[in-house]
Amino acid sequence: MRVLVVEDEADLAAALKVGLGAEGYTVDVCRDGLAAVQFALDGEYAAIILDLMIPHQSGYSVISQLRTLGLDTPILVLTAKSGVLDQTEALDTGADDYLTKPFLFPVLLARLRALVRRASPASSTREVGDLVIDPVNRTCLRGDTPISLTPLEFGIVEILARTPHEPVSKSRLLALLWPAQEPDPNVLEARILSLRRKIDTPFGRHSLDTVRGHGYRLIADRPARD
Questions:
Q1: Kind of pairing between the strands at 26-30 and 2-6
Q2: Vertex 70, ends 178 and 113: CA angle to 5°?
């Protein structure tokens, strides 16, 4: 799930990128209002985390412009301003929620999940056979059995579940999971093995399939009948 962070404080932007990335989000970061509008219009984001006091174009202006252009992506405003009028202006302009700096990261996560959940249709869950992936609540089930996945493992299975039965290349997975890095492909292969041990092996399945020369795919592998 991709999130846009618009924040000109370098340390905070970096911390949000690392923290959200550890929770399984793919994070793009930009530092000013002009870039924010372009990123938001060009990308497909589940939510935007937006500081109000940014260079070139204020957060208020960014919100107003995006809403005028018809973009309905949820916007969570971050600001050092704590006045009621500032909060009211941000919400009236089109923001969906408001968080005052300094804030606790778990609170930001909870607010972000709530925004995405409200904006997502009930059909956002993805089913491949009896494997059910819920990107909003970040849960994975095999039938009625919950499966505990790390954020990275969940990111992999959620990407593969978007196009079941169709292979996704290693390079595509690496680009989606580590957009600003050049990770070791061996890390991906290790996570794939770990995923198989969690979603397939305990259930006697083979749904996480390697397609030689193409990458990986999820197939609707059903349990063998007696």
A1: parallel
A2: 45
Greater model confidence, 200 or 158: 200
Quickly count: other Cβ atoms within 10 Å of residue 43's Cβ.
13
Find, among 125, 172, 180, 176, the residue nearest to 152 by Cα: 176
At 111-127, the pLDDT tens digits run: 998 898 887 655 578 88
Domains annotated on the chain, with CATH: 2-119 (3.40.50.2300), 123-218 (1.10.10.10)
Q: Give the angle subtended at the CA of 56 by the CAs of 52 and 61, to the nearest 5°.
A: 50
pLDDT digits (tens, 9 = 90+) for 20-65: 988 888 899 999 999 999 899 887 888 999 998 899 888 899 998 8
Q: What is the pTM of this model?
A: 0.61
CA distances from 32 to 39, 43, 95, 105 (A): 11, 16, 17, 22
SS3 (DSSP) at 215:
strand
Q: What angle do the packed helices 185-199 and 170-177 form, to 10 degrees?
A: 90
Contact in structure between 89 and 60 (CB atoms under 8 Å): yes
